Amino acid sequence: MDELNKEEIVDNINNEQAKTRKGHLILKKREGVYEESSKYCLFIGSNKRSLILKNFMYDIYSIYKPLTCYMPKAHSNLSNIIDKIDKLVDICVHNNCSFFFSVFSTKKKPSRFIIGRLYNNKILDYYVFSLISYIPLKLFPLSKEILYDTKPIVLIQGSYFEQNETNRYVKNILFDFFKHKNVDTFSKKSIQRLIVISAYQKNNEINADLGKKVEAGKENNDKNNDDDKNNDDDNKNNDDDNKNNDDDKNNDDDKNNDDDKNNDDNNKNNNNDDDDDVTLNFTEDAMSTTKENLNDSFKNMDNIYNNLNTNKFNSYDKLKDKDKKNLYVISFNQYLITKEFFNINKENEQPPKLQEIGPRFEFTLEENYKTPEYNLFQEALRTVKKQEKTKIKNVHVDEFGHNIKKVYVQKQNFSKLHTKHTKFVKKNKFNT
């Protein structure tokens, strides 16, 4: 009986009508509609985050404008976001947001960000990603020439998104997040940017490169050994003084090599004792040099990208990735679409090259995620049919949108009208 009483109480609260005009408007906004408006996103900062993660969240916020609610300050209540998603849901409902985006970083889980969405004021699904590499939006010179209020073209490619059900949900939420606002029609002038999200295998490429380097090193060592043998045979006929000198030089070289190895070991230990986000930190000097190179040309972009992000991201270390959970990497790139793309007339004419406008980053999916329930997801995808209005005869719409109605009235027979009590028809009575 207690459970039934609780359910009845909850139903009465949900179906309760508002007592004030303001409350009535709030409840009316929360009701379901036939055509949903554009989805707003809540950008909120956790208690533990680095400066680079904060800049990363600001770049995503600038892409998503103006459908945003930005809260960059650190929230003490959100120290562990995964355990406190109910509070995030309450904040989203209060601000009328159906998406939430947040960043957090700890020693065990550095450089993480989370994307989630709501349905019917309840959590639908969320996914945690690990940020591997990142180039900010400010480093791209063409980033200021684009209007981020425009709707982009989103291209998602890679066999990774079709492997299993969770990857399909990841593809769905990424497309739903970056598609921006809902638009019925658009023109060529309104299309200005292209977002490309691609998934590829990173570990295989790295292992292949390492194998090539190892084979090349072995060949060089064999050649050096052959040369050393020939030199030793030639030097046997020399005096004992030359032999002693050679021995001294070799001893000095061995000592120097030992010192270099010790220094390398010390540097590795020092790097392991750094802060949580050592994997994402780079100095201001590197930032200034990259700006100069980017303003000159885009040819050095790959070199800059490698210089900023190589040997700083430890997610693909062999010791840490023994289980090979993160075989696939998802990359995000944004390009500028110019008018030249729409003026191609010839079939053999090649389209112009795309110019990147940033930001550029790579990320992988982590184990902490929640996929939507099947029935709830199908309900969210369901399209409700509108009630068709009954057609009214002799009514048409003008060019200006005015309804014009025509009424056809038949001729009236005045002899059949009921005129018994009218004064004008009464006969005058004369006294005789």
Structure description:
InterPro entries: Brix (IPR007109), Rpf2 (IPR039770). Pfam families: Brix. Residues 211-267 have a biased composition (Basic and acidic residues). Keywords: Nucleus. Belongs to the RPF2 family. The protein is built from 10 helices and 12 strands. By secondary structure, it is an alpha+beta fold. The strands form 2 sheets. Strands 1, 2, 3, 4, 5, 6, 7, 8, 9 and 10 form a 10-stranded mixed sheet that branches. Strands 11-12 form a two-stranded antiparallel sheet. The protein has a domain at 35-202 and 274-390. It is extended, with a radius of gyration of 36 Å. The N and C termini lie far apart (94 Å). 36% of the residues lie in helices and 19% in strands.
Low-confidence stretches: 204-216, 266-299, 310-320
The helix content is 25-40%
Largest sheet: 10 strands, mixed
Coarse shape: extended
Distance between the termini: 94 Å
Q: Give the percentage of residues in beta strands.
A: 15-25%
Based on CA atoms alone, the radius of gyration comes out at 36 Å
By DSSP (H or I, 4+ residues per run), the number of helices equals 10
β-strand number: 12
Provide mean pLDDT, rounded.
73
What is the element string, with H for helices and E for strands? Answer: HHEHEHEEEEHEHHHHEEEHEE
Secondary-structure class: alpha+beta
